[in-house]
Specification:
211 residues; mainly beta; 14-stranded antiparallel β-sheet; 1 helix; 14 strands; 11% helix
Length: 211
């Protein structure tokens, strides 16, 4: 009977085992330095689904990117609208370096904002108005709220408005986010991920419900 044990000293077997070990270690390294996940939601108004929202989180090494997309179709009185929103965030070592968001209504850009790390804080351009947000680091944004429950977080950066918004816990795994106009939105979590968002608008209350 042939002896195929490692201790047999067969050069081919030793070389095979060595190559297999290196390959497995490479896979382990890739797995531990890369991460990707997409969360998907239905946009619900008055009990009817009017659109979809998805947000992906991708980590490679020390860089994490978030990309959110939404598409909704609705009517106000007798006029129909199509709203598309896209938001991107880039974090390096857990600190925001760049963000961009664009809202398009019936194909025309309605709102657009960018945020970029700069000397003395962050440079923001919100619909053509440029400002500096005087903070050394932004760690939590509107986009990060979906993938991670904001435990011990009191302020969230809004890519849309270029400013910090107050957030506080109001129940078991439920948080209240105060918008720039004073209206309250509510985020509910399960196992660390957002499962529902209640968005209170002057015209209607909209819900994002995780699929």
């Amino acid at each position: 009977m042939n002896d195929l044990s490692i201790n047999s000293g067969t050069p081919k077997i030793k070389r095979f085992v060595s190559q297999l070990f290196c390959f497995l270690m490479l896979l382990f390294s890739i797995h531990n330095n890369s991460y990707a996940q997409t969360l998907s939601y239905n946009i619900v108004k008055g009990g009817s689904t009017i659109g979809t929202f998805s947000i992906s989180k991708n980590t490679s090494g020390n860089t994490t990117t978030y990309e959110a997309k939404s598409h909704s179709e609705f009517s106000v009185v007798i006029k129909s609208y199509v709203l598309d929103v896209k938001t991107t965030n880039t974090f390096i070592d857990g600190i925001l370096t760049k963000a961009h968001t664009k809202h398009q209504l019936n194909g025309a850009t309605r709102n657009e904002a960018t945020t970029e790390a700069a000397s003395g804080g962050y440079r923001t351009d919100v619909d053509g108005t440029v400002n500096i947000v005087p903070t050394s680091a932004i760690e939590c944004t509107s986009s990060t709220l979906y993938h991670q429950e904001p435990i011990y977080v009191s302020n969230v950066y809004s890519e849309r408005f270029g400013q910090f918004l107050q957030i506080k816990k109001v129940g078991d795994q439920k948080y209240e986010l105060t918008q720039a106009d004073g209206k309250k939105n509510y985020f509910t979590y399960r196992n660390g991920q957002c499962v529902e968002v209640e968005i209170n608008h002057s015209l209607a209350t909209i819900y994002l419900k995780k699929r």
